[in-house]
């Protein structure tokens, strides 16, 4: 459950956007989501780099950022001066979303119209600094953050845009006992909580015990890491056919696609481009 401290951080980001001249709630949510996605891309890259080292594998084919694109990583552009940061994010990071993410992460079609609406360098710096403080490696908290963002919409909830409690989602997934060679569909996926929980379940169940290890999260807490190495025989199916989600809201689909990018073990392509469909 999202804490008062985290709510306060989101409220401050929201206020920053309003003060900076961006007052349309949907635009604010989309811009925050894009920036959160930019950070999650980098966090995923870091995680995959560590995993490759641990397993003694090369990461070249699975990299999102090649050697000439390192400046597009969150950890690098967040340190730039305000004006240079704005120019880089506007002229390079967002075009990267629109053009290259489509082939590198299989969610490009949901970012095809991504535009940076932030025109003030000072606002971008504020937003980046605020988002840097959010615990985006915690999947449950991240889902709560999206839910709280959606609650800012005056129409939030009218179309059923509420997030199911984590323990309920997990219990339902365990009752279903999904298999890695099956197809899992959520007909009203929202931010993709059920689909993500399904992949977490499979990753945990199909991991060699000796390869499971403990890492420290951003806040210093210990997190058990499951490699999902026994899913390797099902890799093609996982990448192309495992997860399918539907929603009538394009914004939900975009958030779901960005949220799904954090699932393991095949972060870069865990579902096909046609899997998340807008049913209008």
How many domains comprise the coordinates? 1
Question: Poorly predicted ranges (pLDDT <50, ≥5 residues)?
Answer: 154-160, 264-280
Assembly state (oligomeric): single chain
Question: What is the overall number of helices?
Answer: 11
Taking strands numbered 1, 2, ... along the chain, how are they ordered across the largest sheet?
Answer: 1-4-5
Span between N and C termini? 31 Å
The number of E-state strands comes to 5
Element string (H = helix, E = strand)? HHHHHHHHEHEEHEHE
Structural classification: mainly alpha
Globally, the shape reads globular
Helix % is: 40-55%
How much of the polypeptide forms β-strand, as a percent range? Answer: 5-15%
Rg result: 18 Å
Q: How confident is the prediction overall: mean pLDDT?
A: 80
Taking the sheet with the most strands, its summary is: 3 strands, parallel
């Amino acid at each position: 459950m999202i804490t008062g401290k985290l709510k306060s951080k989101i409220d401050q980001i929201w206020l920053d956007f309003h003060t900076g001249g961006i007052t349309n709630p949907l635009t604010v949510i989309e811009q925050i989501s894009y920036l959160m996605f930019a950070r999650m891309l980098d966090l995923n890259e870091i995680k995959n780099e560590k995993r490759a080292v641990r397993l003694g594998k090369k990461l070249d084919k699975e990299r999102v950022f090649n050697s000439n694109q390192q400046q597009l990583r969150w950890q690098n552009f967040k340190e730039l001066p305000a004006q240079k940061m704005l120019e880089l994010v506007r002229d390079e990071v967002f075009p990267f979303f629109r053009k290259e993410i489509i082939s590198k992460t299989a969610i490009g079609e949901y970012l095809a119209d991504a535009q940076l609406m932030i025109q003030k360098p000072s606002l971008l710096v504020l937003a980046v600094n605020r988002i840097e403080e959010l615990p985006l490696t915690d999947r449950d908290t991240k889902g709560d953050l999206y839910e709280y963002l959606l609650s800012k919409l005056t129409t939030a909830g009218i179309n059923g845009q509420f997030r199911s409690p984590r323990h309920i989602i997990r219990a339902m997934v365990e009752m279903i006992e999904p298999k890695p060679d099956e197809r899992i569909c959520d007909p009203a996926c929202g931010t993709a909580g059920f689909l993500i929980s399904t992949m977490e379940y499979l990753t945990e169940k199909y991991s060699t015990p000796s390869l499971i290890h403990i890492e420290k999260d951003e806040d210093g807490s210990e997190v058990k890491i499951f490699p999902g190495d026994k899913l390797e025989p099902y890799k093609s199916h996982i990448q192309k056919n495992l997860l399918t989600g539907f929603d009538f809201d394009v914004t939900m689909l975009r958030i779901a696609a960005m949220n799904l990018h954090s699932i393991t073990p095949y972060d870069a392509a865990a579902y096909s481009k046609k899997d998340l469909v807008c049913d209008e």
